Hints:
The chain has 87 residues and is an alpha+beta fold. 31% of the residues lie in helices and 11% in strands.
Amino acid sequence: MRPPRCFLCGLTHWDLDGGEGIDASFTLVHFGLNAEEQALAEARDREGWVGHPENVEWFCGEHVAQAKAKEHLHWREALTQLRNPAR
Ligand SMILES: [Zn+2]
């Protein structure tokens, strides 16, 4: 899993004041997978894979609400919409 870094603004915990509970400022949002990706993810889980899934991104406190609003979409669609909010 990658360290926290906001998908939208690039904020990381290095940008925040030091101190405890910094990770709490970031939230992991899980977006949807298609059937094929879901099967692949389950196979990886069974093998104990510990990489960063493509449908999971970090968001800072400011952007997590926007991300959660797209959570039900397929991750590719959701991330495209988040990058282009005016459309
Ligand atoms: Zn952000």
